Amino acid sequence: MKLLVILLFSGLITGCRGNSSHSLPPKLLLVSFDGFRADYLQNYEFPHLQNFIKEGVLVEHVKNVFITKTFPNHYSIVTGLYEESHGIVANSMYDVITKKHFSDLDDKDPFWWNEAVPIWVTNQLQENRSSAAAMWPGTDVPIHNTTPSYFMNYSSSVSFEERLNNITTWLINSNPPVTFATLYWEEPDASGHKYGPEDKENMYRVLKEIDDLIGELVHKLKVLGLWENLNVIITSDHGMTQCSKDRLINLDRCIDNSSYALIDLTPVAAVLPKINTTEVYNKLKVCSPHMNVYLKEDIPARFHYQHNNRIQPIILVADEGWTIVLNKSLPKLGDHGYDNSLSSMHPFLAAHGPAFHKGYKHNTINSVDIYPMMCHILGLKPHPNNGTFGHTKCLLVDQWCINLPEAVGIVIGALLVLTTLTGLIIIMQNRLSVPRPFSRLQLQEDDDDPLIE
């Protein structure tokens, strides 16, 4: 038994040291396809992505952070923080102290980003390492006076191919070497807004294009000799749900728009009252049964969306598929931003490379768990964060992973084996210690003949 225990633990230790022998620093490419809803994987065909998954790992659902919009969730992925902690609380923000405004079209002021330290900045501080980025939100901003060593100023007109070419060039030719890189693409989010996720014909076409881009990514990595040694994570920031002109919440029917300012609109609206906050709240509270209205101090704790000055005094949260408007028009057939417990808001995660298992599927993790996992892969000391590394251990080859039911089963099985072995030993000892009746006397060769025959 002692020998078995020693062999078991030596095997575990060997497994945990699996990647320590690599002389070159590990490299990681993080790719986001904006608005890639998790169940697209079940509802559409993705031959290239499925091949990627077969050789790597898949997390079927990633529970993202509230609010489920682009800028906040992309920053949570690379900081491991809830929005109230990293400070990017919406795509449009207002700071009452500095009177500054933030939008996805005016996002270059480091003031908005400096409440957190994204992983590309941490990686830059590692000796003899650099980072690279192609359009990931925030990477073209000097956060804590630091940008990636190589980056592209955001422009939606730049093709995926050009972004990919830049990233692979930097991964191969940079000195010091690029060990962390990000790549962002606007689809299928843009088409999800335009057509709605229930438009099968158009979404089939768009998602096929996405799959072809993944095939192009993998092919290029293989041609350039990066495929076997580069860790690649493909994920997204949020999902998408169908909207309708029959599901509108018209604020103009409930309250005069001169009494408040809308900082961010639909499906989570940030309201800054111009008059008494209670008066504005009471009018909005009865505006629609399909919208929850919260005073800032009453926002549910599960949203982790309360403790930041950029969160406005009143927050409106529409029910899934409902749209908050100031008139009767429907701006988008598909939208996101809703409650992050909704499966329609969840993206997925797939990963491949020397750090990951092959052919492994996992049910769910949180988007904030991605950051500590990436830090582990790169050998970086993570900043304080809201993620849990243990949630992602099962994805990694150098970690011993066991879930609670398996642990209970192993303990019970071990106890049964030990009990059985103990019982057998006791029985054997008892048999050996009791003399056998009528046993024949054994004589030495020089003994006299027996007295009784």
From TrEMBL:
Task: Name the needed cofactors.
Answer: Zn(2+)
Subcellular localization, as worded in the UniProt entry: Cell membrane
Reply yes or no: does the keyword Transcription regulation apply.
no
Keywords attached to this entry = Blood coagulation, Cell membrane, Disulfide bond, Glycoprotein, Hemostasis, Hydrolase, Membrane, Metal-binding, Signal, Transmembrane, Transmembrane helix, Zinc
Q: Which transformation does this protein catalyse, written as a reaction?
A: P(1),P(3)-bis(5'-adenosyl) triphosphate + H2O = AMP + ADP + 2 H(+)
MF terms (GO), sorted A to Z: bis(5'-adenosyl)-triphosphatase activity; metal ion binding
Signal peptide: which range, if any?
Answer: 1-18
Q: In its UniProt record, which GO terms are filed under biological process?
A: blood coagulation
Q: Does the keyword Nucleus apply?
A: no
**Any stretches that span the bilayer, and where are they?**
407-427
Q: What is its EC number?
A: 3.6.1.29
Q: How does it sit in the membrane?
A: Single-pass type I membrane protein
Supply the Pfam families for this chain: Phosphodiest
Q: What is its main location?
A: membrane
Where does it sit, as one GO cellular component term?
plasma membrane
The family note in this entry says: Belongs to the nucleotide pyrophosphatase/phosphodiesterase family.
Give the protein's function: Hydrolyzes extracellular Ap3A into AMP and ADP, and Ap4A into AMP and ATP. Ap3A and Ap4A are diadenosine polyphosphates thought to induce proliferation of vascular smooth muscle cells. Acts as a procoagulant, mediating platelet aggregation at the site of nascent thrombus via release of ADP from Ap3A and activation of ADP receptors.
Question: What is the protein name given in its UniProt record?
Answer: Bis(5'-adenosyl)-triphosphatase ENPP4
Origin organism is Puma concolor
- Gene transcribed to yield this protein: ENPP4
